[in-house]
Write the structure tokens for this entry.
Amino acid sequence: MDIIVLEPGITELSIKHIIKKLESKGLKTHISHGTERTIIGVIGDTSKVTEEEEDAIRAMTGVENVVRILKPYKLASREFKKENSEIKVRDLIIGGKKIHVMAGPCAVENKTILFSIAEKVKSAGATILRGGAFKPRTSPYSFQGLGEEGLKYLAEAREKYGLSIVTELMDTKDMDVIMKYTDIIQIGARNMQNFKLLLEVGSVQKPVLLKRGLSATIKEWLMSAEYIMSQGNHNVILCERGIRTFETATRNTLDLSAVPLLKQLTHLPIVVDPSHGVGKRDLVAPMARAAIAAGADALMIEVHTNPEEALSDGEQSIKPESFTKLMKELKPIAEAIGREI
Amino acid sequence: MDIIVLEPGITELSIKHIIKKLESKGLKTHISHGTERTIIGVIGDTSKVTEEEEDAIRAMTGVENVVRILKPYKLASREFKKENSEIKVRDLIIGGKKIHVMAGPCAVENKTILFSIAEKVKSAGATILRGGAFKPRTSPYSFQGLGEEGLKYLAEAREKYGLSIVTELMDTKDMDVIMKYTDIIQIGARNMQNFKLLLEVGSVQKPVLLKRGLSATIKEWLMSAEYIMSQGNHNVILCERGIRTFETATRNTLDLSAVPLLKQLTHLPIVVDPSHGVGKRDLVAPMARAAIAAGADALMIEVHTNPEEALSDGEQSIKPESFTKLMKELKPIAEAIGREI
Amino acid sequence: MDIIVLEPGITELSIKHIIKKLESKGLKTHISHGTERTIIGVIGDTSKVTEEEEDAIRAMTGVENVVRILKPYKLASREFKKENSEIKVRDLIIGGKKIHVMAGPCAVENKTILFSIAEKVKSAGATILRGGAFKPRTSPYSFQGLGEEGLKYLAEAREKYGLSIVTELMDTKDMDVIMKYTDIIQIGARNMQNFKLLLEVGSVQKPVLLKRGLSATIKEWLMSAEYIMSQGNHNVILCERGIRTFETATRNTLDLSAVPLLKQLTHLPIVVDPSHGVGKRDLVAPMARAAIAAGADALMIEVHTNPEEALSDGEQSIKPESFTKLMKELKPIAEAIGREI
Amino acid sequence: MDIIVLEPGITELSIKHIIKKLESKGLKTHISHGTERTIIGVIGDTSKVTEEEEDAIRAMTGVENVVRILKPYKLASREFKKENSEIKVRDLIIGGKKIHVMAGPCAVENKTILFSIAEKVKSAGATILRGGAFKPRTSPYSFQGLGEEGLKYLAEAREKYGLSIVTELMDTKDMDVIMKYTDIIQIGARNMQNFKLLLEVGSVQKPVLLKRGLSATIKEWLMSAEYIMSQGNHNVILCERGIRTFETATRNTLDLSAVPLLKQLTHLPIVVDPSHGVGKRDLVAPMARAAIAAGADALMIEVHTNPEEALSDGEQSIKPESFTKLMKELKPIAEAIGREI
């Protein structure tokens, strides 16, 4: 059901024109005359009214506003599926009682460094190895990633250390090569509304980690999840990684309230990436703790053996020792809210 | 030390003009010619260079930019005072090992309701009672608070239940009446840059709870703390209560990363107000837990026995039963990070 | 008329409870059962439903959302008064065919400089002299203005050059002294929601220039105008001066679309202040031209004979020669849209 | 030249470590000891220092901050090319004295409507026809565009009405088909940081219209232009189309100050799209006038013969009659600033 608010002084003819249009779409209407405004209640399955039809109604003479009552996403909504979705990643479950931690370097730089980091995060308790082979960089002159070579190292690290892997897909053209290696396909913040890419990953069954766009609302983010799910792939994991605000003291503003809010709106699991969220190494541990306390299902943390030599995002990577310490701190917090890590 | 970046192609005359100006202020300069830019390093106590003098230099012919190296606040900075400030509120210490919880209604409505709430939050473990007697409301037609009558009820509740009290000061004219009753003077978000009000509360020794403005940067917030401290009152407590962003799914975006960041930048204690931060009752508890995990020294939470009848902010108030449950959940999280509540 | 959207699965009892509450406020209700949601249409004069009552309804069990159809401001709305308000300032009219230009230094520094600037802006075509005697500065260590001495110089300049004057009121305590001298009382951006100050200037009949807050929505801004008007002072002039966004290349983001939007929503005249809006001298002229083209009723521009020595905001002040040139450029643009300057 | 600000209390060893690292990259250093901080000035061609190297330095022990003096873009900068770039589109020049207007429907819906709109905008003075064949829609259930069929209609309209055409490329896979038809390749706001797409359009010589991302800074926008130019395609046209802010009264906040600011920073021409910028039909004309007054080189305006039936963005499309009226209003404003339209 939707509500159409009419302008004061609208003519009877215009009202008839609007009603005729709605009826032509198989919808019923109900007019209420208030003291200061007349409104039309639209009855029927308005979820079939597309965005453009809504715009068209808003564009009609005499219409002041159209208020949509229903959420624009369906498959991603908690109403569609009451129980939490548990996403299977090889032998792991994301979205269950156990909180998983994805850790690793921002970019895969070479095999030695990657293996060294993988070994350490594994022994500290991480279950998934992160690392970019295709890197979105704001400068064309920056390191753009190792490409397939990097993917191979990740796959080797998976075998050697028993870690699942997650890595980013940046372009539809790279879909085949990414599919060949990764366990979770990451869609980066800058591609959250790259709709062709969403359709592409929607057509497979591999889990997708969908990062929130820098300036994406919760609603838009869930609409992007809906894009993927509408193609048949319901294995979507959401990842909060900070939004852009006026504050420049941190790289982004990590929106932790998104975690409990999403738990109400959707059945999909939620990961928090404090590394990108704050962009400063010293703030990663407290925000990781806070994310767990807020109810996150998993964490994604940048770890590097030598942040000073990292080819990407060294400023926000923590060292393996700090990561090990953090994992210990997270344990009692997880237990305090009835989970384990 | 500051840096003045000069435009490419600046004339020798303009450079001399700039140097002369700096020297007239007792500062020394050091020129470095780079391949693409010339810069002037300014040596001496540039913290005495005021904002307007900096602007004036920026306005000079040939100046591309002025980069200030030092922070504009001094008394509020961690460099000025290495140890955490512990603020004494009657017999309590804010900023010590123990985390305090301030709870109560948004506005003081009448004695019965206030006392009922006070009794319940006290027994759940709160140590400070909050409640507004002067209310900043966006509409002139909304309830504006009980004024002094409300302050009296707060003072009576303090005696009866052994709680300290915190209430908001909105105008310099109300300073005397507020001083007569409250233990902590609250400066609301909308008044964070009401500089006359800051000077006024700076001239007494009573603790001041300074809420962050809706769109205030961390730096501006600390500058407002500096305003108060510059008048001699060093008893400033900072309160994060959410910032304004593009996201409308929550009332504000609670910036929890401000907590560990402020711990680096300042020695002042930090309170988190999740009620205003999110504006939705169901999100208050998870964000309160997250605030503790992030390192907050205290919480400020809106509690009402009957949110449906509250005269202000009912939507974000939790019931006493929920508050009691929350206090229990906070305990193990506080312990997990070496604190108590 | 308002709309209350109910949660799916709400009980009949909860619905009755909500209806009873609405009826207790003299409102009638009308229930519509849609396929996916039930909604309650509220009939009657819902403009009397205050903010807190709305919150209280939103806080009731089973309520998903409350959608307000009517705007929360009345006196400031175009519906309340169809024709443009013309505000009389001594012998001038703001909001009529003629576009007025307010010009002068950011702060009044001394008599000589003020008079020199006044003379030049007058001869270039400005009709109102601006200048701050009480200055809101983010640092307590910055120049805070000359106080009453500055007001005297402004009044003397008014006599000598035949300019009306506008200056800022920062605190209720300064109301009497400001009233003694100024023609227009300016409420600064940081005080847009200093409600006690709004009530104070609402109780006189002198024109008030209400600057938009750094992060104030158009709705909140009009609510602040409503505050002033609710006390009887309808002589309110709105001033767009830039909002805070993520962009740091300009001091603020000048929201020129506010001009034509406000022309639809309100009958009050609109001034644009490009100096604060952009914060960079070279951008002032193009944005002043754009403001006129967008339909502004007046401009407020910082002019200083020697920006390099200005005690405040030198970076964004233009020189008298530039101002004279700008005034000439504005003339044909004003004529192109049927106005004069 | 860059500046490295060191933490107070940094050890001599750490300083040596930093200097050694810089020297290993072929850079020279110069240390200055201030009263409160020590800084290292970095001498040499620091434009070769990549983002990741900067991050790595920032990550070193004892480094408080790294201040980059030079802009991170080169080819796009005004310093690289002093004169305005004039971009040739068939027989038109964008960036010259003449201001061009791109007009047409949001999406190409069918041949009849497109031709009808094309005829009318042509006769009103538009020189370029806009229309989407591949449409980025926030909902997977919305109309996604006609694809190649739409491109064919655009090409036919070009022949019939003598208009150049501009249409959006959404995915690298569609590059060939887009290249076959369009005169200007549009990169949409959501793809401004789709780096693979930028590299792709950088490898041809066809003009690229690069829309500003919803939350992109001016710097990031110019870096995306740099991406395209770094591959050899210098025919980049920038298009301001509104940024995302806290204000919801307009769809976006049109940042017109970007126009004069970009004129300082870059030699590339600048288009303004007021239709997306404000999202409300009635605000399009005043903002189009303001854009010209601010110095825009071209406008992009959505025009539809029947906005109420448009399949996309009907709310912000103006009718041909309104467009014709607007074109007449723009003429004297263009002349007032020494241009023609």
Summary: Chain C touches chain D at residues 215, 217-219, 243, 245-250, 253-257, 259-261, 264, 277-278, 280, 282-283, 286-287, 289-295, 329, 332-333, 335-337 (CB under 8 Å). The longest helix of chain C spans residues 320-336. The mean pLDDT of chain C is 92.
